[in-house]
Design a protein that fits this description.
CATH superfamily: Iron/manganese superoxide dismutase, C-terminal domain
CATH class: Alpha Beta
Largest sheet: 3 strands, antiparallel
CATH topology: minor pseudopilin epsh fold
Number of helices: 9
CATH architecture: 3-Layer(bab) Sandwich
Number of strands: 3
Bound molecules: manganese (III) ion
Distance between the termini: 30 Å
Strand order of the largest sheet: 2-1-3
Shape: globular
Length: about 220
Amino acid sequence: MQTTELSNKLFELPELEYTTNSLEPFISQETMDVHYGKHHRGYVEKFNKAIAGKTLEVSPLGDILSNVSRYGMAVRNNGGGHYNHSLFWSIMSPNGGGKPSGNFANLISDSFGSYENFKKEFKKEAMSRFGSGWVWLVVNDDELKIGSTPNQDNPVMDVSEFRGVPILGLDLWEHAYYLQYQNKRADYVDAFWNVVNWPEVERRYEAAMAEQVMI
Ligand code: MN3
């Protein structure tokens, strides 16, 4: 395979569907500018560097991550960083908040007792993740599950103890909240619910079920 064929297949920083100030007051513009513009951009650049000239460049990101044990830590950390942040931006919206709707709302209640209890369990998982990582809502075997992963790992990765198709994720790295919330991770988790883009979470749930993705 020639490098010229691969050169335009590099991964790119996705465009945000909203401006960096539009999640305020829940997530500050300063946080978004640094997080999206510096951190995520950095993951994309380092990921592209890690896969440059390899056939990995033409593989879908999900395929790379579901076989990530075959590759080095640069692919795991930066490919994971790219996947996780791309998902994160998409499941937030300036018009977010509220509650899940329709069948999905019923599913949340059936799975966790109630929407309030779902939020409680998600927060508990977020608070018990020591250091940097992510907390997730995933589809696994047709069921909704809450869990977390360290660093930039995610439930798609074959190296992860917690597996599934992520439909909602929250970044627990201090870079995601420290500028605004300092050490108060709990306040950041509480604020997050005001910007969750439930229609997108529900779309991801439907897609995961339709594809019958086997993990
Ligand atoms: Mn981050």
